[in-house]
Amino acid sequence: MKKVLEVFGEPIATGGQEAFVFNNLQSMDSNKFKFDFLTPYSCDNDGRREDIKHLGGTLYELNCLFLPGKSRELIREPIKGFFKKNKYDVVHIHSGSTSVLAIISEIAKKAGTPKVIVHSHCALEKITLFNKINRRLCGMRMKKSVDVYCACSEEAALAKFCPEILSKVQVIRNGIDLNKYKRNITTRKALRERLNAKDTDLVIGHVGRMTYQKNQEYALSVFRTIHSIRPDSQLWLIGDGPDFETIKSKVGELGLENSVKLLGLIRDTSRYYQAFDAFIFPSRFEGLPISLIEAEAAGLPCAVSDLVSKESDIVGDFVRYIPLDNKRAWVDFFVYEAARFNEKATNQLTKAGFSVRDSAKVLEQIYLS
Q1: How confident is the model at residue 139 (pLDDT cuts 50, 70, 90)?
Q2: Whether pLDDT at 44 is above 90
């Protein structure tokens, strides 16, 4: 049995990298692996604690201060201390920070870990000179310590790894359980009834952590115009995060309290996608967002910022990439094009490699090889 440590380079919360890890581990052969979990910070998601318990693993929280945008060197000594006491066959590091990938991989390899994997799950809004220099310096360090480079998309690889490394990066699809997203009319009707949406109402959905990156304020601005044209429309926002109170205040300012539902953190969102008629995703940057793949799996027409990776377009004309400076096009999409349903979505995503059964097999082979 292989001992595998899944390392999260940020606090364990509700993001895509957490979804990727737990979706895949829960689909792997539990007899082959013993999984533990580490974050230099803390776990802010009780649901993930339950997932770890279910997998029979141990969660290690080092409780370092999380200071986005600041040097990550504060985690070095606590991470060293952890690896002095704990040994693993495989260490798989997930982070949106190139520095974190370099620091932890370096320490893990020096501690004698046979296989060290680094995984990029996020793109950048803009690759600056600082990013390029940091990529180069961290890349030199990772060459000596990393055995396998992974990313959720080519854009996520480009954001975190220097050019010399890119040819070595293995893209692993953000696989999901596609069967959970097949439309069930009974589920759809029951959920819409519970949340006071009629069968004929236009329900636009969004799932994402409430942060600058996800840009929910733009979704509100678009929806305000949609609602003026279609008073029977509703916007359901699923997620929590640092911008939750800001979004809540904005809903009040726009007078949309009766048509916008802030549903907060929901552990299993699959049935909510079945209640949506369309999906809005105005992110400022992304790697390959799992929530968008879930919306596509549910057969929904999706309006997506043109800043999101085009690798996420799996189902053809059901995904429309629209510039954020063309608000009219966003409004028109939902008013005139949202009354559609893609019955072929499951087959399309399976062929494209987005079934969690396929991504879990890929990950399993990397761990065992």
Answers
A1: confident
A2: no
